[in-house]
Predict the 3D structure of the following.
Amino acid sequence: MADSATIDRGPATCPHPAASSSSRSADSASGPAPAGDSLEQDEDCAPLENDSDEELGSASPDSSLRRPLLPTQNILDPSSPTKPNLPTQAISLDDELCITVTGYRVVPFYRLLFHILSFLSCGLLLLLCRWFPRLRLRIVAEKCDFAQASMVLVDSSWKEHTIVDVETLPIELESLRDIFPGVRSAQESAWALGSSRKPNETAGDHGQLRFFNYRFIKFMLNPYTGMFEVNMFWRDPNWRSVSSVLCGVDDQVVPRRRLIFGDNEITIKEKSTLNLLLDEVLHPFFVFQVASMILWSLDSYYYYAACILVITIMSTVSTLTEMKEAYARLRNLSKFSCNVRVWRGSRWCDLSSEDLVPGDVFEVGSAMAVVPCDAVLLDGDCITNESMLTGESVPVAKYPVTDEDLQSLDFENEDPSGAPRMSKFFLFSGTKVIRARSGALPGASATPGNSEASLHFDDFTGEPGAVALAVRTGFNTTKGALIRSIQFPKPHTFQFYRDSFRFIGVLGMIAAVGFSASLYNSYKFGESWTDIFVRALDLITIIIPPALPATMAVGVSFSISRLRKAAIYCISPPRVNICGKVEVMCFDKTGTLTEEGLDVLGFRCAVSENESDTLGASSFSDLYKVADLFQDYRVTTESKSALRPAAFAAYWGNASSPDNPDLSYPIIICAMACCHSLKVVNGDLIGDPMDVKMFEFTDWQIEEGTSSSETPNRHSGPPGLIQFVVRPTDDLDFETCMNGSAETDSFSRATSGRPRTFTELGVVRSFEFVSRLRRMSVVARRIHYARGDQQTSGNESASVASSSTSPISLASSLNGVSIGSTKEFEVFVKGAPEVIRSICATSSLPPDYDSLLRQYAHRGFRVIAIAWRRLENISWLKLMKMKREEIESNLEFLGFVVFENKLKPETSPVIGHLRKARIRQVMCTGDNLLTAVSVARECGLVQSEGQVFVPRIDESGSVVWEDLDDEENENGTRGVLDPVALTTLQESSPEFDLAITGDVFQTMLESASENTFHRLLVKAQVFARMSPEQKHLLVERLQDIGYCVGFCGDGANDCGALKGADVGVSLSEAEASVAAPFTSQATNVSCVLQLIREGRAALVTSFGAFKFMAAYSLIQFTTVSLMYSMRSNLADFQFLFIDMAVIIPVAIFMSESGPNNVINPKRPTASLVSKKVLTSMLGQVLLQVSFQAVVFFWVRSMDWYLKPDRSKGRFQSFENTCVFLLSCFQYIFVAAVFCVGPPHRESIWRNYRFVATAVLLTGILVWLTLSPSALVVGMFDLRPPPLRGRLWLLSFIALDGLLTFVFERWVVSILASAYTAVGMVVRERLTRRYRRRPADVEAVDALDRRRQHRRDKWERKGKLYKVIEDDMRR
């Protein structure tokens, strides 16, 4: 961080960019000064008044509220007499949600007319307007501009419509300049608010702010532009530099900010029980059910209506209870409050976190467990756990923001949670604080601004913490976005749901036909018009069951429950069914397919043949492991030159004088020890697992700088000078050297009489790893501790090689200190070998650089390259001003560090299962291409012995594909692919795969033809060196060609891909992550199999439940229609028995079947209109209807048949009894055949509850058929036929059951295939030409037509990838 960004905790003047003419000139030189510098700060921090209207009116792009609006907004010219009249406005809230806002105002006459019509319709119009919001607007309101609107219609990109009232708040006109930086003055604000005064006239002090809230986001009407602006994208134009924000906000500004942003709390306002009840009872299906109960009561079905009413009440109470509990859980998840030290009014104050507003400067202390708002770190350092946000369980280090980064904050165009640049200094709300430390010296003032009443950290108990700037509060924070995603999940237009509503429409048409037929029959029998309409409407309630949506959701509920037991959590239930349709699964590599931690295999140095030549390298040394390493450099001085390998001679530091080296350890070891971003928390190393393994390999020690006055600090200097210090562990350890204690070990006795040098490196500047650069670096300073022979001299001898003015000095009690030159620093860089090669001097690169890298990558090892550079004659100030590109240049290559990347035990079996299930697996990683291919071969993602083609860009910029394993032939070329068709040029070639890097992927995306790029997407199995943005792009492009895409990653760099995928799985310890709809606490890929199995089971269950409910409706519709034909109906208790004893338990328990353990290669269909589904459902309905008709007329043909005697009962008849009993058996039969088992669900026999229910019901119905008691006969209004008739009826029932099973088991598939074959024959006949052609030509044409038919079907379904696969097979 630049010097200007360092907080001075002593009394000092708070610099403000507008505090002097010089600073104002500097600002104007870099760009126009942002308008709206009206934040009322204290006197020392207040900006100077602007000198002219032009200066007031100028505004930089960053100074205004971010408004992703369409059409383009134009700020009014003050001289313009008109204002914009734009009643419709498009606003993009994030990557997925875009809304369109339309302004409306209520017309009094229309509103009066609406109330009259509502009264006359007995509230029916109100109900319709609740279901169809646009209808109400069309009746009572008219469009207008937003300044006059009393309500707005919000249409989302998810086809949801919401009417929101526009609210008003009184506001000071001057405050508008704080809210809307584009407003130039209070006078113009008054004019824009509708005042008759001109902009140059005197205006009043108050106006009104118009706004509305939608999904916890506040939309404010800018009175000057006439358009709504979102407060979640707001940023203060005064956030130009770190020094300019240290003053915080003034007490006068806080109320204004709270007016706009509200309290810093994420509170889900729980609806009252009455409102929840109204939402429930006014739902269309609930209203339909209530209407049905009224209708049944009018038809004298009192018992049935009463039972349904009781069940409905119980269901409503249960639903309300679950909703209240869900609100309570969500409220507990979102609610958070803690005490925070805030810099307000030139003093530190203890406030509640709910009082924070954007612009507040607050302390992130060690006592703070959770970050209370979205903030930018200004000073100090923090370590946070962001698993709630990204799913990444590895703690993340945060560093202070720079002036450049602070100026470029843009919440609209750059989401902090997905921007690697911002994640380095951005503290996300809700993330856990592991450690927070101050960047200042102990005992110094904690006051960031200038105030005599400053409050020092010494006045508090405990250590001071870091300092941060609150930038977003409440629901505008990242945690607020997580709560919004849970509260308002994205709806998915799954084909099954679309088809189900269409089929309900078909049932409605059947109900209309039955309604008409019932009207005719009732009129023919001479019944009253009241009975006619009641009976006709009753048919509608039968054929459209109100419980259909709940029944279809039961299977998903069971799946979610099973997933929760497996530690897999879901925040989007509709995605469960989509899991069953996954066609390609993308995996991150490190931490997902492979172990999170890498084991260091060893390192290989670049060495030269001439030991004295330190400027060039001719080869690599042998691989050095831990044992070899210490054996080599724990040697005596006399034998040092003779025994140490050439690897150490080249980079020992001062090879010309081995007895007095300036680094007493190999430089590559020093680089491995300090080139990282590790932190120490409670004695444990926290950071990237690879960095931890690399540092532990060196066996060095690390000590971080501390500001605690209780802990002795050996380093003094400017704040934040030393980030951390590393030193080797030795028999003569550092404490021995510092304290001068006796040496007792064998090595010490061997070296007695000779001087001994100990090395310590202090890291003074670091550049974090950036995905785009693929490297990190540190700048360190050397410190030496020389120790002489105590036995001869009796005391420590000191050799000081630098002046006492060094920025690093040690405590006066420490003897034997040698500090490197004050103008001499070491630069250590590590990163991807391809990147390090480009920034190293060519002479330092061994000739076998590429071949050795290729060798290790082929074997599946991960290789990191390390380079070094010495900065000489560089002052401290100049070092701090040097850019990263300048520091990381002209480097000397040191060597390779080789890591073992072991597969997780579960990886290979999971990949094998997916391969058998014909679910494509893709690796998408940021690692080296060769390493990724090696891991892919090891886990079976690509064939171990198969061809893999990799790309390279030749001199002309074209992409050339070469066989990864094919050596160059005599012509100096290798086996290649056709660069356009992506097919092999050999006549006979086995199956092959493609592996591609991120840069080539981007090149082909931008320059290759659409056909070539689509072929790449279909054939490539490994995508290496992919940035987070490219991963997201890959997911989107796979979806474009028809894939249902799943993505599994650890969440670190995969947030965009996890969000964009149809099924995103984050491996995290958190129960919910904003990064993905599914979160697995089992951090291995086995959760993918569980999700796919459960998804397929849920999808098949939903199909079965829908088919059963549809068949139940049509079967009962047939039963009632037959009864209507004889002026009868089912009895009250008969309806009750069917619904309560048969349908409800059967529908619930048939959905309880779990998933099959094996994933079948054939995915379940997602379409209700497929041939097999329609054949099954319609065929079963026709079969059951036919049996009912046969039994109905069979009864009448028997010699024992007697006509119904209505004097004995309304419903008693032989027809009623036989058809009722048959229908009850039919419900069980169709439930059994629709309760599908393998291949996607476990066997029906393992669903014990369903089997027990079916057996019990069958036994009861057999008893009712053969020998019912008199009580039951009277209760059910039965008229049993004689025993002979009952046996015949039971025979019909048995035959019905047998044919039901046979039809579903064998006939359905035969008929579906026959339909397909007949369709193809008909098409061939229609397309056949009349001229005669040879038979062989005709056969070829027939095959082509069939192939074209398949291709047309794929294209209609959007499955372009199947068309591409078909093309590539030809």
The first helix runs from residue 21 to 30. The chain has a mean pLDDT of 77. The radius of gyration is 39 Å. Residues 1155 and 1241 are 4 Å apart (CA to CA).
